[in-house]
Structures
1.
Amino acid sequence: MDCPVCNDPMIVVEHKGIELDFCNECRGVWFDSGELELLFEAIDLKTLDDLMKSPAKEIREQLKPCPICRRKMDKIAVGKTPEIIIDRCINKDGLWFDGGELGKVMTQCLPEGCAKSDRVVSFLGDVFIK
């Protein structure tokens, strides 16, 4: 799979059964819909269905192609103030986080007292927050 930002091939990062597509060049992360289910079980963000139905944001930024269907993705806001703008496949194939965005979302949205032993939180924290 190629990165929607720099078009370099992404690598698959796997830890304890969780796989993410990661661009080593721009540090972006692709979550397909199955991987998103794991993320939303661990982080109190919104339900996945709500997020996929969120209205698109009008942003003056070039729209990126989905790495799966290659159609232009739209932009949605996640997190608390300040909102973080991420890219969403209009075919619901998944979400793209530019380098640093996933760490910001996790920092804002981890529930108080979240168990760091949770495999998803632990993996994402180790890779994208530290």
2.
Amino acid sequence: MKRKAILIPLLALTVNISWAQKVEFFTPSIVRIVKDNGQSFDKKSEVVNVAPQKVKVSKTSNGAATIYKSAALTVTVENGKVTFADAKGTVLLKEGESKFTPITSGIDKGSYKVKQCFAIEKDEPIYGIGLIQNGKMSQRGEHRLMTQSNLEDYGNVFQSIKGYGIFWDNYSPTQIDDNATLELESQVGKVIDYYFMYGGNADGVIAQMRYLSGKVPMQALWTYGFHQSRERYKSQNELLEVVHKYRDLKIPFDGIIQDWQYWGSNYTWNAMEFLNEDFGQAQRMIDDVHKNNAHMSISIWSSFGPNTKAFKELKDKNLLFSFNTWPQSGLSFWPPRMDYPSGVRCYDVYSQEARDIYWKNLSRLHKMGIDAWWMDSTDPDHLDFKDSDLDEKCTSGSYRSVRNIFPLKAVGGVYDHQRAVDSSRRVFILTRSYFAGQQRTGANTWSGDVGSSWDSFRKQIPICLNYTLTANPNVNTDIGGFFAGSYNTQGHNSGTRNPQYQEL
């Protein structure tokens, strides 16, 4: 019997199975799959920022199967499972089990744990996923909870050697298990929601992910040069001495980075002001850097000490989280004095009002001429982590439901605000964490406070390469590592004098 093909512009075709399922073509080679377990739920993506094109798609039936064909893809839905093939019918990927587990108590009651399995071929390499400190290129065989941290971050994007990619559009902690099938299970979701992208090769998948979530702005020329940094410069005189010495020796460098504690005590943590008396002429310091044809970056955090202006305003508006974050003590001693807690708290990055307050305080440094931002702890840091930390309420619902886009919102807030008020220079941000879509801010992610060892050094290469395969091109790692560890043979912080560390 001849089947009749109907050519239609497909924006949202729903297949009636045990749950409602939507097959939505964004382009001929990008299709979104949404399953909602019978609930009507219109989800707005925090990552995908384009609307679907009017794609010509034919819809046919063959027994229990419904088949959608665009110029690039054939998508078959049968018994609730989706199969993706190219235009010639060559199978690229098949779904396995889909599962909704109801959440019956707590702040996320009424939502689900959502799980999708993919029947990836046994010897099929996959790449990307995020910054993972495992030293591997192909990420097959992984079993881990994907949640942002100092050393590891996840973009929820992976791509296959077969030329397709998947973006799993969920922002809660997500378990990835590569068993007989590749399984993704997120802790909170109203729907199963992902994008299948067929690019033909790695560059093609990257281009499609950037089409969905944003292009990469060009960075300022100076940022491609050498950035001089150390754990921190303890005074303006120390910083300027380094700048002048580079120029005296005619060694090229383009930027210098001022790390933490220029703000004074831990009670004024991240005040975004030069409150440390050793930076008493900060404007002169910044001007001197510029007179020497150099640029200056400065450390800013996603948290504030209780004596800062930002903390007080955010607290009044109930825009601070309550979980413990770095630093533990209000006193700048090591080890920390726990009988003097710092009271430092992270801010609710999911609130537009909170991001406005953040920029209002940061604008003091912007007006002084600071050229770039070193955004530390955009994971953010959790001290004495308890799973219940994630059950806190934030502007977007439960913190758990949006945990992994903390860096996307934090970094995006700074980028958007600076772009809105300053067209004279490009925004440059160094940040410790990321999520999919963050490439549109031009931010450069570094791989965290890695340990100093030859093994760690080796691992940074596949870490950075896999990161770029999630469509974020700008990445770096600490040269020589950050924690000297076993090289501290003569006591705390002695590693830098150890010839073996110096060789590394």
